[in-house]
Amino acid sequence: MLFRSVTFSKQPFWIQVWSLPFDLINEEAGSDIGRSIGELVEVDYEAFNSDRSKFLQIRVEVPLDKPLRWGGPVISLKGETSRVAFRYEHLVGWCFNCGRIGHDKKECPLPIKADNGDRPYREWLKAGISGETG
């Protein structure tokens, strides 16, 4: 059997969810957030009782035909709205212009720039990176 063309439509990533209200660092919130990104694989339960409790960690099958999500709004159990940020672990081969995986900004078929001329996607989407390096 020959495989001439294999197309991948999604890829699993561990995603850190930062700035989550304390009352939402739980399995239910992790499941809801994970399903909003893609296909939920797992919520890391160990993070609830460890030094990593600064963020919630979820494993999600991320669709490759859509831009990576930066984060989004959440509503706490008290009804307060806040924004969370996503950090993707082991993220490589993605485009700073369109946010899609599989090419870099030089090969981007959909070059998009922010209104102020900055790239809309930066290194901080990668877990463990504090600022843009290039």
Automatic annotation (TrEMBL):
InterPro entries: At4g02000-like, Zn_knuckle_CX2CX4HX4C, Znf_CCHC, Znf_CCHC_sf. One of its GO terms (molecular function) is nucleic acid binding. It comes from the Eukaryota. Keywords: Metal-binding, Zinc, Zinc-finger. The keyword Repeat does not apply. Residues 95-109 form the CCHC-type domain. This is CCHC-type domain-containing protein. It comes from Quercus lobata (Valley oak).
